[in-house]
Amino acid sequence: SLELIDFKNALEQFQNLVEKMVIQKTKESSGLYTKDDDEIDYGKFYTTTRTLFGPAVKDHNIQAFFRKVMSNPDERPEWLEIFGCFIGESDSMPSESKESMVLLVSEKQQIAHSVVKRKDVIKGIVKVPLLHFTVTASQKGVLTVFNKQRKSFFSYSFYFHQDTAWITGCDFLPNLKYVVAVTESTILLWDYKSKESKNNGFVIKPMKNCLLCVCTVTVADNLTKDTILMGDDKGYVYLLTMTSDDFLMKQSKAEKESQFRFLDSESFNILKRKLHDDWVGKVKYISALKRFGSCSTDRINSFVLDDIKRLEDNLPVKEFSVPKGVNAFTYCGKAEVIVTGG
């Protein structure tokens, strides 16, 4: 607590110092400033800042902060910047520890790999913590797995060629170890582990309505199957359970030069229930609550949160009405709250 009080006092003195610098610079610009012993130059600013915060601040951050204030006093920087926050990394900066006696700055890493080509966009991104990788899906059909090994990322991609349908979402099947993505008319499953350039994907079709979102139901009761939730443009939420046998027994012959094999949607027991009167914007299974959620722009049945068994029967569901509907939602286990965005 004493350190906290000392830091608050030091911060207050630092902010007063910056305020004096701003007043001084403003007077200089208007020609009203007369130099005196209280003038704050870079040497005085550096010495005072170093005295207040000690080794928690770096020379290059002090210099950058001073230059920023003097070049544009009307747009003064935030005090956090004196500790290097919000300043981009560059090769010229020393590779010292990001740990500070005042603040702990999280280190970010940028993936410079060009995932998609021009006129294409990322439509889904999913982190898989247990396997330490990230899955992305682009609108025009590029599925990519970024695997972090030896403190660097390498990626391998799969291109799903399609005529008109766009990918609308993706997720990862933890038990079957497949990447799942949905397009407007199909369900795509990619065996990212396959070393073969061909026949490493499956497509389930046809789907009558346009699929808009997908997620995996994470349940630890059976490690030989995975369950998938999907939502469409007619307000339906789908439930599809798959096992490894489905890939062996239900596949049709692959077309020549094709990277995927077709599975007939009629051969699967795909459960569905109409929960909304408009597009389903997002579906998600919340493991901590053992409930699934789905949201829609429907202003009456805007958000549904209930047991996944409700997709198998016709019992009433817990639904909430939000003006103008719900576009997104998330759950915070620590605070035990669900937040929706309309």
UniProtKB/TrEMBL annotation:
Gene3D superfamilies: YVTN repeat-like/Quinoprotein amine dehydrogenase. Keywords: Repeat. InterPro entries: WD-EF-hand_domain, WD40/YVTN_repeat-like_dom_sf, WD40_repeat_dom_sf. PANTHER family: WD REPEAT-CONTAINING PROTEIN 64, WD40 REPEAT DOMAIN 95. This is WDR64 protein. It comes from Dasyornis broadbenti (rufous bristle-bird). The gene is Wdr64_0.
